[in-house]
Specification:
The protein is an alpha/beta fold and about 400 residues long. It has 2 domains: about 170 residues, Rossmann fold (3-Layer(aba) Sandwich), CATH 3.40.50.1950; about 200 residues, Rossmann fold, CATH 3.40.50. The protein contains 13 helices and 21 strands. The strands form 6 sheets. It has an 8-stranded mixed beta sheet, with helices on both faces. A 5-stranded parallel beta sheet has the order 2-1-3-4-5, with helices on both faces. β16, α12 and β17 form a beta-alpha-beta unit. α3 crosses α5.
């Protein structure tokens, strides 16, 4: 998402500077070009050499450094940058940026930037809650800054409260949501289903499958990054839920059916990636079923078909995408499902193919529509999610 993005990472004076080193490394791993600018006081917490080793670039501190290649450094860097991130942002630097004060390399560069700007405050709780700081934060919001809320917890000074710089994962998600993708789904409402369902047998046991929800979660996150308002209807999983989406939890197939169908009419795009049980126990025992001699027979009944119901009830202009996981005759079975359920596209994969299926971070899929089949190579599930959305956008623009 941040491949080849030029990012200025501003580091101001805070004990949270140590987090910035990890953040710089993660941004580099994401394929970004990172230029670190430190305030003089920040160098008391962490050395510029640390950032130079991590980024492969000279860390800038002195506005009048004559050894740097660019003649007017702060102006040239402002023109170079795709995004400016100040993390940590101290109360002092926030106040300077709010009032246009440019008295060091960091603040002069920020003032010259017309790219998207992000700031992750870090300070003592009393400083953060001071009316002057609150007013400065509101001023920065009016100026177009995206402020990444600090977290609550035990602070370095020993106080407990709000003021810890947001975690690296949060900052990265907010950056990706802000600049990581073209907003070609802006204004669209997207519903994604993900994960397994659980069909109760008794108070102790249930029937389920191996779905981890990774593919559906990647789709929900990608749609959010592309500007959509996303509702994620998810079964129980251990996979971390994506941020900035409306999460609706559903345990059983019936709960997922109700959650989807009560919202479907309001959606522009529905993507059904959940592994929904086809059958459930006909009767749920009120008490734990005890072990007996001999074999046991379990009577099952069909669950409601969410995709078929959504297809039958679809309104004009809606796009429906289903998933088909097969172990044989993948294309034939998937195309039958596409036609039977009256949907626009189906994403098919073969559980027996290495690199595809449950519990892995990659997938190998074929995108099937009424008049096309597009086989994709092995990709990460995040990359597959983007390809699926590309196809949906393209079909929607026809």
């Amino acid at each position: 998402m941040l491949q080849n993005k030029n990012i200025i990472l501003g580091v101001s004076s805070s004990i949270a500077c140590y987090k910035s080193a990890g953040l710089a490394r993660t941004l580099i791993k994401q394929g970004a070009n990172v230029q670190v600018i430190m305030t003089q006081n920040a160098t008391q917490f962490i050395t510029p050499l640390t950032f130079e080793q991590l980024t492969g670039r000279k860390c800038l501190v002195d506005t009048f450094d004559r050894n740097f290649e660019i003649k007017v450094e702060h102006v040239s860097l402002a023109q170079w940058a795709d995004v400016c991130l100040i993390a940590p942002a101290s109360a002092n630097v926030l106040a300077k940026m709010a009032h246009g004060i440019a008295d060091d390399m960091l603040t002069t560069t920020v003032l010259a930037c017309d790219c998207p700007k992000f700031a992750a405050p870090a300070m003592n709780t009393r400083m953060y809650e001071n009316p002057a700081t609150k007013e400065n934060l509101e001023t920065l919001r009016r100026y177009g800054f995206t402020l990444i809320e600090p977290e609550e917890g035990l602070l370095a000074c020993g106080d407990v409260g709000k003021g810890k710089m947001a975690d690296e994962e949060v900052i990265l998600d907010i950056l990706e949501a802000g600049i990581g993708a073209v907003k070609d789904l802006a204004g669209k409402r997207v519903l994604v289903t993900a994960g397994p369902t659980r069909e109760a047998l008794d108070p102790v046991r249930f029937l389920s499958n191996h779905s981890t929800g990774k593919m559906g979660y990647a789709l929900a996150k990608a749609a959010m990054q592309r500007g959509a308002k996303v509702t994620l209807v998810t079964g129980k999983t251990e996979t971390p839920k994506p941020r900035f989406v409306d999460v609706v939890e559903a345990v059983s197939a019936k709960e997922m059916f109700d959650a989807v169908m009560s919202r479907a009419a309001d959606m522009d795009i529905l993507i059904m990636a959940a592994a929904v049980a086809d059958y459930r126990p006909q009767n749920i025992a009120a008490e734990k079923i005890k072990k007996m001699d001999g074999n046991a027979t379990l009577a099952l009944e069909r669950t409601d078909d969410i995709l078929a119901a959504a297809g039958a009830a679809r309104r004009s202009g809606q796009f429906l995408c289903g998933f088909s996981m097969e172990t044989e005759h993948m294309l034939e079975n998937s195309r039958k499902k596409l036609e039977k359920k009256k949907i626009d596209m189906i994403v098919a994969n073969n559980l027996r193919q290495e690199g595809a299926g449950f519990g892995v971070d990659t997938n190998i899929v074929t995108l099937i529509t009424k008049d096309s089949e597009t086989a994709l190579p092995m990709m990460t599930k995040e990359q597959v999610a983007m390809k699926i959305l590309d196809a949906i956008v393209e079909r929607g623009n026809e």
